Amino acid sequence: MTSIDFLLGLVAFAFVSSITPGPNNLMLLASGANFGLRRSLPHMLGISFGHAFMVLLLGLGLGQVFVTWPVTHDILKVVSVVYMAWLAWKIANAAAPESGARSGRPFTFLQAAAFQWVNPKAWVMGVTAVTAYAAPEAGLLGAVLVAVVFCATNFPSVSVWAWMGTQVARWLSSPGRLRAFNWTCAALLMISLWPVLTG
């Protein structure tokens, strides 16, 4: 495999895994609809840079922790499920039932970056990317390459979901429709946990 083929494969993997539905994208869909694209920008940047940082640390050997202490993986599962259930509740209740006023605030950069550590899809993406594309002999350079490609590919991918949320915002001007949309996003967020619960 040439270096060009390798890079194209990495970019393709990063793009497909970043743009497909998952907790980050479902939350951005709801954020775009409830808060708009500009106010969701820190959330988008937090996802991209937070996940890239996670990938970098995984490439430098953090993933070995799960091999050495398997119980840490089980703890991460429990924390992920509890935290995402709380987020789903917050999303579901982001609309005021009577007035339709938007309550709550969008994720900050740091909140979105920290969320990657309890996001099951982010872990799967990171571990797979490091395993497939960061050869151990490449060391720091290999880990940095994978992290940079993910960051550059991830941001435009997740931005699409926030933008889609803004496109349905006008239709969601009705309190009932906004409430139904938020509850649907919350339900989909919980459904996205199914692989974690059954794995």
Textual characterization of the structure:
- This protein is mostly helical and 199 residues long.
- The protein is 79% helix and 0% strand.
- The longest helix has 40 residues, at 23-62.
- It is globular.
Spans of at least 5 consecutive residues whose pLDDT stays below 50 are: 96-101
Gross morphology: globular
SS-derived structural category: mainly alpha
Oligomer: single chain
Please give the share of residues in helix. Answer: over 70%
Strand content: under 5%
List how many beta strands DSSP finds.
0
Instruction: Specify Rg, calculated over alpha carbons.
Output: 18 Å
Number of domains: 1
The span between the termini is: 33 Å
User: SSE string, helix = H, strand = E?
Assistant: HHHHHHHHH
Largest sheet: none
Mean pLDDT: 82
Number of helical regions: 9
Give a quick rundown of the structure.
The chain has 199 residues and is mainly alpha-helical. It contains 9 helices and no strands.
